[in-house]
Fold:
Amino acid sequence: MAVERTLIILKTDAVNRGLCGEIIKRLEGKGLKFVGLKMAWLDEKTLREHYAHLASKPFFPDLIEFMSRSPVVLAVVEGRNAVELVRNLCGVTDANKAAPGTIRGDLALSTSRNVIHASDSLETARKEIEGFFKKEELFSYKLSNSKYLYAEDEL
Ligand code: UDP
Ligand code: MG
Structure:
């Protein structure tokens, strides 16, 4: 399994419900490395592009309004198989059906207000990271505990 980077967005419900620390704690606790972290107030144009694949859905206007109500927290996390791993840690889109133990399963109960976005493929992750983060906002460094997170042959 390769080391990957993936984009997460802590949505306006996470910010307004005071859940950002809890969500970051879970990802940090898992052993994922934060290589970029910032707050931004996403404008309508950016959100329309980010969710372009959902433009024809009936919930699209609500989604854009919900995501532009307040600033959000954006982060890039790195780790082995990070794209799939983070999606699994988030749980399924409908938080009502998300498994207990997952971020959505434990912290949300709605299909739309589901606290976190995570890139859904390596290709999407690459595009989303490039779209939301400047090069100088991303950091390459070694965690001092990396030998306790991975075996030699996993790095
Ligand atoms: N969404 C919604 N209603 C739906 C499905 C999705 O409001 O019936 C919202 C929800 O916030 C979701 C986002 O649109 O996270 C993007 O949908 P997608 O299918 O990409 O789900 P995700 O990748 O976030 O699990
Ligand atoms: Mg998606």
Notes: The mean pLDDT is 98. The chain has one domain: 3-154. The domain at 3-154 is CATH 3.30.70.141 (Alpha-Beta Plaits).
